[in-house]
Amino acid sequence: MEDLIYIDEKNYRDFLNLNVIAFSFAHGGAQGSPGEIIVIAQDGRKYSMNYAYGYMTIEMCDEVCPPLKGCLFGFFEVEKTPNGWKGISLGAGNFLVLAESIYNQLSPDLLCVPPHIRYGRWMNMVIGYLRTAKD
Q1: pTM exceeding 0.85
Q2: CA-CA distance, 89 to 83, in Å (whole number)?
Q3: How does pLDDT run across 45-58, given as a tens digit for each residue?
Q4: Distance between CA atoms of 65 and 112, rounded to whole angstroms?
Q5: In sequence order, what are the residues at sequence separation of 6 or more whose Cβ sits closer than 8 angstroms to the Cβ of residue 93?
Q6: Count of domains for the chain
Q7: pLDDT tens sequence across 18-74
Q8: How far is CA 92 from the centre of its chain?
Q9: Domain limits at 13?
Q10: CA-to-CA separations, 63 to 7, 9, 66, 68, 106, in angstroms, rounded
């Protein structure tokens, strides 16, 4: 599996045109990695940014991942997503948002396991789907 590409306040402008297919969002107090947003692009590359640690603001994150701006994350569920996107809880303040096209393919497998299991599997599932779709 390829490594994450880290985005911060110094380099975020280099990543404004990612073709985002999926991303996770962690509240500032979430279990795991608080404040982290992981973005997966259509080409399968994975990016990590964090609005809670360091100097990157949530507005900078919105610029890198535009669908993020249209989301509302509650305590237990994704309460709102922009058109063309669907959300799933990953548990403990962590959430996953998928483009509808990939959501329709992956949601049956994602939703049949508890959120804490989804949290550890979602990236490999998305990357696996992208590789299979490419073939």
Answers
A1: yes
A2: 18
A3: 999 999 999 889 99
A4: 27
A5: 26, 27, 29, 30, 31, 34, 75
A6: 1
A7: 999 999 999 998 999 999 999 999 999 999 999 999 889 999 999 999 999 999 999
A8: 15
A9: 5-134
A10: 12, 11, 6, 9, 26
